[in-house]
Write a structure and sequence with these properties.
By secondary structure, this protein is of the alpha/beta class. Helices cover 38% and strands 13% of the residues.
Length: 289
């Protein structure tokens, strides 16, 4: 793998600073995308007392070549205690904003939509003032599954487009670019009070203008929030990094995104889908619905 430039180097997390969050997760038997997907920001987020919960895992029924989450298409029963344990963790950690994501569960009739709903409801029961963001899979285009999640009224509905259309076959072979855009479009049309969000990885061979076109496509379906971050190769068996994009380029994309009308653009080498997600609470104040 290519050597990381200085702007991508982060200090190794110190156990005494992240131990409380890690102990809470272990005690309650919960998974996080921070750990399962080898997020480079785990030290910063755990130190701050936050985490992105990964439900219905830890294994995924899709084998995307960029992702470090384990692949397993064996059908598995959902754990009915998971929503309760997640809500207990949110309460224990005192989270004012929580991000709940999942592995793909294409083996389930609703793709796991009902488990998202149970998690949202469990959190709301314990933490009435906590805002909730869900980062969902595409549910194979199942409109009813999407509406089921939205009917639980999360404040933010996040679904990543991941990359530019030209690279989908190589990067996201089981995904469909147009299907992801349609998911975001349906969300805004049917639940206009819910903020929509999407994320893009760069450094996989896309061009600057191709990223701009994805941004335009997202604004065409009224997507509110955008994250752009550098792809990092988890291991030698995963897709190789084509380019380490400079911080100046990320800033240029942010300027373009602001000009296009996104309510919030987070664009930097270390940005991930839920990086500093709690900042959305300010957006709820400045742009209420």
């Amino acid at each position: 793998m290519a050597t990381k430039p200085d702007w991508l180097r982060v200090k190794a997390p110190q156990w005494e600073r992240i131990g409380k969050v890690s102990e809470t997760l272990r005690k309650l038997g919960l998974n996080t995308v921070c750990e399962e997907a080898s997020c480079p920001n785990i030290g910063e987020c755990f130190k701050a007392g936050t985490a992105t919960f990964l439900i219905m895992g830890p294994a995924c029924t899709r084998a995307c070549p960029y992702c470090d989450i384990d692949f397993d298409k064996t059908p598995r029963e959902l754990d009915p205690t998971e929503p309760l344990r997640l809500a207990e963790a949110v309460q224990s950690m005192g989270l004012k904003h929580v991000v709940i994501t999942s592995v793909n569960r294409d083996d389930l009739a609703d793709g796991g939509a009902s488990q998202f709903v149970r998690c949202i409801e469990a959190v709301r029961e314990r933490m009435t003032d906590t805002t909730i963001e869900v980062l969902i899979p595409d549910f194979c285009g199942d409109e009813k599954a999407l509406e089921l999640v939205l009917s639980a009224h999360p404040e933010v509905l996040n679904h990543n487009t991941e990359t530019v259309p030209r690279l989908y076959r190589r990067v996201r072979p089981q995904g469909i670019y147009e299907r992801s855009l349609e998911l975001l479009h349906r969300s805004r049309i049917k639940f206009p009070r819910t903020y929509t969000k999407s994320g893009i990885m760069v450094g996989l061979g896309e061009t600057f203008d191709e990223v701009i076109q994805v941004m335009k496509d997202l604004r065409a379906v009224n997507c509110d929030i955008l994250t752009i971050g550098q792809y990092l190769q988890p291991s030698a068996k995963h897709l190789a990094v084509h380019e380490f994009v400079t911080p100046e380029t990320f800033f240029a994309w942010k300027k373009e995104g602001d000009a296009l009308g996104f309510l919030q653009v987070v664009s930097s080498p270390l940005t991930r889908s839920s990086y500093h997600a709690e900042q959305v609470q300010q957006l709820l104040v400045t742009h209420p619905r």
